[in-house]
Amino acid sequence: MLAFFRVVEVGKFIRIPLSNCVQIITIPVLINLKLLLRRPRFNLYHSIDGSRSAKISMPRKDFTVDGNVARCNRMITSLSKDGRIMEARRLFDEMRDPDVITWTSVISGFIKCGMIEEARRLFDRVDAKKNVVTWTAMVGGYIRSNKISEAEKLFHEMPNKNVVSWNTMIDGYAQNGGIDSAMYLFEKMPERNVVSWNTVVSMLAQCGRIEEALRLFDRMPERDVISWTAMIAGLSKNGRIDEARLLFDRMPERNVVSWNAMITGYSQNSRLDEALDLFEKMPERDLPSWNTMITGLIQNGDLRRARKLFNAMPKKNVISWTTMITGYVQEGESEEALKIFSRMLSTNGAKPNQGTFVSVLGACSNLAGLGEGQQIHQIVSKTVYQDSTFVVSALINMYSKCGELKTARKMFDDGMTSQRDLDLVSWNGIIAAYAHHGCGKEAISLFNEMRKSGFKPDDVTYVGLISACSHAGLVEEGLKYFDELVKDKSILVREDHYACLVDLSGRAGRLKEAVDFIERLETKPSARVWGALLAGCNVHANAKIGKLAARKLLEVEPENAGTYMLLSNIYASTGKWNEALRVRLKMKDKGLKKQPGCSWIEVSNRVHAFVVGDKSHSQSKLIYSLIRDLHSKMKKVGYEPNNVFLSDEYEDEDFSLI
Predict the structure, then answer these.
(1) Which of these, 325, 346, 411, lies nearest to 374 by C-alpha position?
(2) Could you tell me what percent of the chain has a pLDDT over 70?
(3) Which of 119, 335, 425, 473 is 20 to 30 A distant from 631 in Cα terms?
């Protein structure tokens, strides 16, 4: 790994935030956004909700009278826990008279290995021996497989139910958003335990029904540390952090999870000093405590203190490393993210997981670091994550951003023909790849193929699709797909979609339509929307609308030097030199300076970086000589340089050559 990271040390690169992730987990922009905000989530700090996901476990003691059966039961249970389910099944088939514990062990083993259909076939056999634990295990298996209707049907067929059965079904509803169904079942329960109450209190608090959660919390006949912690987490999530602290101070007993929940609450509400103060006061800290605090600092943009805390950790796990890598990628410091990943590999401790690979591949995408991306691909190919759809999609995105669209497409096609099932994330990844390269027709073709394969597009699909239409100038097609999106009530239209539509209209010069669309929005337009409009005005030299867009954009981002530069360029391109000068002077009075453009190329394992006007390269004379020759040839075919967009500081330089 000696040549692993060749980082450019000239200035800073353009920042492309991955998300608002750690969505949880927003990574190449579309892929990380998907991973951090939706799909199966990997949290960078551990859950405080101890009441969720009730597990079906075997009795600790086997009261089987027959010693041989008891020994077989122990072996089957052990094999199942180790994932050696087929060996467990063979042992089961060889038994002459397996008892109910044997049947339950094998069925639970298949469920644990994700083989729900095989578990159900055993469960439905005429000679099957079942008790309430067996039935509950089967219900829990369907819930784990996201088959809530099958779980519900089986639950209602149960001849006998105990409190664990009821809790399992209630938790299943809660996990799948069936809040009212869970409450209905809770009210019908013949008996409840503290887990029953914890499940519904946590569910209501997490979905925003905080007053109902508080009323139930007050009604609880007994509370444990999980009850208090769940309520604290719910209040914090709903912005009622001071009430959460009062509850925390009232707790009869606390554990490390309670402290972590309160620290997370302060971080979620941007009260970092109080979070750090509480962290310092903790009587004991575990790894999640450190990870929770570091995550909170990163989520609030305090990367410096997060790094200081990270360096002070007595021990780090994969979540610790992934948190820091993701933080640096989100802040646009992808070079540092790659350095941390290199350190992680050299420690011989924590091994990268799915989230690590997705984040570090995002760093390679931002830097267009093909060599580094290929090395990471080699590492991925030696792990169980090589078939992960999230990692494959991140690889597709990386190759696309590095200019290797053919390689990206090959990876996608290989997934189509291999045993690996491509999911919606993979389709979104390849559509986004074609969008990035301006291949609108190919993106549309893939979109149609995706639908024929039985996949329903989601919000991320439409971001890639409309963006592809925008970059390829396919205005009518883009408008058609946006209209299709709006009519599909199952998909939430986000600001990304609005920005894509404005960009589509702006690139095509239909600026008045773009303004009319923005004025009709029911929500306040974001900086991205106004930025897209301003960029369109810059391309088509529309000073009137450009002034409006710049004014609105500066209301949201008053310190954005790029906005002043674009507005000045628009005035200059229309011959309004006094206005252009006035904008430049205002920008200087505020002490704002636009970061100069930077480009780089890798030749023979060495990265050569160039900033605008840069003559520091050892071969700059030869480079400029070649550029002048190229410029001369361009002029012969009719090219005229446009110098009105140059900053004052570069006016004396011959930048028409660059």
Answers:
(1) 411
(2) 86
(3) 473
